[in-house]
């Protein structure tokens, strides 16, 4: 057995206090996102973990890229016929999480996912490089395939078929908008007394703000 009990780190880079937070979690998320971006970490600041409840009843998490966020929620794109696409169709309750190691921060978002409009999906698909567009078409995401060569050969066929032509968005590919119901901000602090602030959506569209014990 690999014993990791001596893996320890003291978190001392920042603090999260009620006297310095907005009433809306999206504003705080925006502040944190750009602070991490300005800090210059090595990773992709928009990388997030999406957790769903699969058709087999088990939770499953995977890393995807956040492509837009606003007061309405958080948008990412995927193949609707993929494992996560089918899971969301059956149970739209999802969890998003961000871990920004460089600034010792974590954000956990519980929300409801729904498909974005076709206009939004079309607009983002059109902005992608042709290689990414063809990749979305050629890959039946989550399906079993015989080999890597199978994918690469099908991609070559598509490249020839669409040479000099516009590439339309597949109907089974598009965005999900996650409307947040609860957003928790975690800031690492010394002696494991971390700061945890939770925002919960209320029926009057306000947010209930509470501090949680570390």
UniProtKB/TrEMBL annotation:
<dbReference type="Pfam" id="PF01243">
    <property type="entry name" value="PNPOx_N"/>
</dbReference>
<feature type="binding site">
    <location>
        <position position="106"/>
    </location>
    <ligand>
        <name>FMN</name>
    </ligand>
</feature>
<feature type="binding site">
    <location>
        <begin position="141"/>
        <end position="142"/>
    </location>
    <ligand>
        <name>FMN</name>
    </ligand>
</feature>
<feature type="binding site">
    <location>
        <position position="84"/>
    </location>
    <ligand>
        <name>FMN</name>
    </ligand>
</feature>
<dbReference type="GO" id="GO:0004733">
    <property type="term" value="F:pyridoxamine phosphate oxidase activity"/>
</dbReference>
<feature type="binding site">
    <location>
        <position position="186"/>
    </location>
    <ligand>
        <name>FMN</name>
    </ligand>
</feature>
<dbReference type="Pfam" id="PF10590">
    <property type="entry name" value="PNP_phzG_C"/>
</dbReference>
<feature type="binding site">
    <location>
        <begin position="77"/>
        <end position="78"/>
    </location>
    <ligand>
        <name>FMN</name>
    </ligand>
</feature>
<feature type="binding site">
    <location>
        <position position="128"/>
    </location>
    <ligand>
        <name>substrate</name>
    </ligand>
</feature>
<keyword id="KW-0560">Oxidoreductase</keyword>
<dbReference type="InterPro" id="IPR011576">
    <property type="entry name" value="Pyridox_Oxase_N"/>
</dbReference>
<comment type="function">
    <text>Catalyzes the oxidation of either pyridoxine 5'-phosphate (PNP) or pyridoxamine 5'-phosphate (PMP) into pyridoxal 5'-phosphate (PLP).</text>
</comment>
<keyword id="KW-0288">FMN</keyword>
<feature type="domain" description="Pyridoxine 5'-phosphate oxidase dimerisation C-terminal">
    <location>
        <begin position="173"/>
        <end position="213"/>
    </location>
</feature>
<feature type="binding site">
    <location>
        <begin position="62"/>
        <end position="67"/>
    </location>
    <ligand>
        <name>FMN</name>
    </ligand>
</feature>
<comment type="subunit">
    <text>Homodimer.</text>
</comment>
<dbReference type="InterPro" id="IPR019576">
    <property type="entry name" value="Pyridoxamine_oxidase_dimer_C"/>
</dbReference>
<dbReference type="GO" id="GO:0008615">
    <property type="term" value="P:pyridoxine biosynthetic process"/>
</dbReference>
<feature type="binding site">
    <location>
        <position position="132"/>
    </location>
    <ligand>
        <name>substrate</name>
    </ligand>
</feature>
<comment type="pathway">
    <text>Cofactor metabolism; pyridoxal 5'-phosphate salvage; pyridoxal 5'-phosphate from pyridoxine 5'-phosphate: step 1/1.</text>
</comment>
<comment type="pathway">
    <text>Cofactor metabolism; pyridoxal 5'-phosphate salvage; pyridoxal 5'-phosphate from pyridoxamine 5'-phosphate: step 1/1.</text>
</comment>
<keyword id="KW-0285">Flavoprotein</keyword>
<feature type="binding site">
    <location>
        <position position="124"/>
    </location>
    <ligand>
        <name>substrate</name>
    </ligand>
</feature>
<dbReference type="InterPro" id="IPR019740">
    <property type="entry name" value="Pyridox_Oxase_CS"/>
</dbReference>
<dbReference type="InterPro" id="IPR012349">
    <property type="entry name" value="Split_barrel_FMN-bd"/>
</dbReference>
<feature type="domain" description="Pyridoxamine 5'-phosphate oxidase N-terminal">
    <location>
        <begin position="45"/>
        <end position="157"/>
    </location>
</feature>
<dbReference type="InterPro" id="IPR000659">
    <property type="entry name" value="Pyridox_Oxase"/>
</dbReference>
<dbReference type="GO" id="GO:0010181">
    <property type="term" value="F:FMN binding"/>
</dbReference>
<feature type="binding site">
    <location>
        <position position="196"/>
    </location>
    <ligand>
        <name>FMN</name>
    </ligand>
</feature>
<feature type="binding site">
    <location>
        <position position="67"/>
    </location>
    <ligand>
        <name>substrate</name>
    </ligand>
</feature>
<keyword id="KW-0664">Pyridoxine biosynthesis</keyword>
<comment type="similarity">
    <text>Belongs to the pyridoxamine 5'-phosphate oxidase family.</text>
</comment>
<protein>
    <recommendedName>
        <fullName>Pyridoxine/pyridoxamine 5'-phosphate oxidase</fullName>
        <ecNumber>1.4.3.5</ecNumber>
    </recommendedName>
</protein>
<feature type="binding site">
    <location>
        <begin position="8"/>
        <end position="11"/>
    </location>
    <ligand>
        <name>substrate</name>
    </ligand>
</feature>
<feature type="binding site">
    <location>
        <begin position="192"/>
        <end position="194"/>
    </location>
    <ligand>
        <name>substrate</name>
    </ligand>
</feature>
